[in-house]
Amino acid sequence: MFQGETAITVDDKGRLTIPTSYRDLVANACANRLVIAYNPFDTGCLWIFPYAEWEQVRDQVNALPSVKAVHRALQMKLVGAAAIVEPDGAARILLPSSQRSAAGIEKKAVLLGMGNKFELWSEQAHLAKIRQTIGEDEISDDMAELRL
User: Fold this and answer.
1) Phi/psi at 119 (5° precision)
2) pLDDT recorded at residue 1
3) Which top CATH class is 2-124?
4) Which of 28, 70, 123, 139 has its CA 20 to 30 A from that of 12?
């Protein structure tokens, strides 16, 4: 569904404009309802889900037994902090200031289409992640089977 890398500018009010190439996809996928949540695995990144996709993720995460601390942490970062947003007439969405601050997202950011969701990276975190290479000792069995 979503793929590609786009440099994004966040305005002084904390809004980003959905790139033109994604606007119809977003409208069709979720009637312009998006959910912004923390990425629990990478610092400097927020996840942006189409609402229907989000409902599935939310239900899976909430189904985890909350007696385990790691489950509670995942529930807090994904469900507890989730923000539902809708683009305005200029196709802008407002990023919650608490999420922007925690992820270190300022004026310049990078939006990645990751299939079922977007990842919104701070410019610095994205650059650091892209510059990292995957070492031979990190290759999983599933990765080894890919024909790249």
Assistant:
1) -115, 130
2) 82
3) alpha beta
4) 28
Q: What tens digit of pLDDT does each residue of 56-77 get?
A: 999 999 999 999 999 999 999 9
Q: Which two tokens stand for residue 115?
A: 């299939």
| Site of tokens 């904390």 | 14
Say which residue the tokens 């239900």 belong to: 59
Alpha-carbon dihedral sign for residues 118, 58, 82, 129: negative
Whole-structure pTM value: 0.93
The answer to whether the beta carbons of residues 111 and 16 sit under 8 Å apart is: yes
Q: Contact, 140 vs 72, CB < 8 A?
A: no
CA distance 47 to 77: 11
